[in-house]
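Entry for adenosine-5'-triphosphate complex. Fields follow.
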Amino acid sequence: MTTGTLTRVVGALAEASGLGDVALHELVRVGHRALLAEVLRVNGDIATLQVFEETTGLHVGEPVVREELPLSIELGPGLLGQVIDGIGRPLARLAELSGVFIEPGAALPTLDPGATFRFVPACAAGDRVDGGDVLGAVEERGGFVLKLLVPPGRSGIVNEVRAGEVTVHEAVVVLDSGEPLTLAQRWPVRRPRPVAGRVEATRPFFTGQRIFDFLFPVAEGGTVAVPGGFGTGKTVIEQALAKFGDADVVVYVGCGERGNEMAEVLHEFRALVDPRTRRPVMDRTVLVVNTSNMPVAAREASVYVGLTVAEYYRDMGYRVAVMADSLSRWAEALREVGSRLQEMPGEEGYPTSLASRTAKLLERAGRVRCLGLPERHGSVTLISAVSPPGGDFSEPVTQACLRVAGALWALDPALAHQRQFPAVDWATSYSLDAGAMTRHFDAHVDARWSSSRARALDLLQRDAELREIAGIVGPDALEDKDRLLLEAAAALREFVLGQNAFDPNDAYSSPEKTFILADAALRAFDRGAAALAAGRAFADLPLADVRRALSNLREAALPDLDAARRGVDETLDRLAPATSDPGGGHP
Ligand SMILES: Nc1ncnc2c1ncn2[C@@H]1O[C@H](COP(=O)(O)OP(=O)(O)OP(=O)(O)O)[C@@H](O)[C@H]1O
Ligand SMILES: [Mg+2]
């Protein structure tokens, strides 16, 4: 291996000479402690390096050794349930070795080399195989079936197959070229894993959060930008989706966020059980952690590490969801590196390539036909928090995301201030997938899903207009039917769109519960209108009872949903008879 010499160190950047024909993005080990770094620029004999670890104590003249491969991550069994840092080091095993503070230069493979798995082959000697073909599988903890694929770009005839207990680095299949294939495989994180093609998104990524599923549903394989100012609830949303989102695998990238938040995530996830599979949530999760106190260069890499892990499971045919919190910290890392490189800055100091890099990043999401046989589809859904300074959505990172994201869940500090959570501004948020996805809910949950959604959006819109008028003329000057509308919209906001992430009964809302609640709130409005039409005065309507019944329904644990629903029906019958529902009552 070629060894060069360190000629300069400035913060996370360093320069080295004598590295020969070193390539852009190649990895090197810097100094006596062998700190991991990546080549950012090559100029004649001088290579500029981005060091992923703390550089204090590094001296000019120390050796720099080429690794002769790009920044890549080891993929294989045992990755699920792990916490890795921005360059793929397993934090739990590192901590066992070196204590809570990770020594710079500490090197441990992502996968435990000693762990064994039982390999069940799906191929035999003599088979012709191509990139992406499934060669066999191992069952991981919790029953997850991990498939061994022919690495993209390879092909050949199977010469040898080995079944049974193996470590991740033992050959399980040998090709006629002599190349051994192991359960562990490496992939360069900055290069998207290839697919056979993109396919249309057909199913919603079900979040378990009513405001998203009901009003702004996204497709599996979709991308969402979740911008919000300080404390508007971005992290709570990302965590709720990681816990309750309907995905086979969840990759949570904590990028530049507070360390104590990541500690909470870890603590909580270990105790959580998936509401659908009854298995520990952690068994289907990979956490990529690069907190604000870790070096900024690794923060930039962590997002690519997360996406590569996601694509790896996608290629097996799984539905993967990636939560990135937050892309702004990734962009800030780009800015910091760009300015150290003295690149010409663009808007607000971000590199001029910000928009194209963001687009490339978001394009790694999608629903695809996987490479190889048997034929299968997989998806990566990407939910990215964005932290615009001062909550100003016109800033470059939010704008770069919005140009490519398929949905916007815009967080509003005024709603957060009123403790209306999730603080999603329904007037500016959108999902380009909404039409197709609500039709899916029509077919699979209730035929009135999309019409109810349209009515709810209309109600919220009229509510905003009326509140403006009421602000001028005073609420007492409103007609009874308008006062009823304000009341109905308030109930919709509080009991349907509002969802307390810390309420064990309501943190997750099943599709059925979401529809039952929305439907109940809309029927309450219809019954109220019927009562007014029949001559009752607004002041005489038992609206407090209706609110109580809706509140009970919202607080009901899933098994008690039917009883709570009957409670709502009885209360509504006291407003006006059931015959006045336009839909003819609930099914
Ligand atoms: N769905 C929710 N239910 C109940 N409380 C919530 C919800 N969402 C947010 N909150 C409240 O808002 C607080 C701030 O939320 P969060 O930490 O997610 O904000 P953030 O946007 O990530 O902030 P930062 O900009 O600092 O990263 C939470 O600690 C919690 O009290
Ligand atoms: Mg946060």
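NOTE: Residues 449-473 form the longest helix (25 residues).
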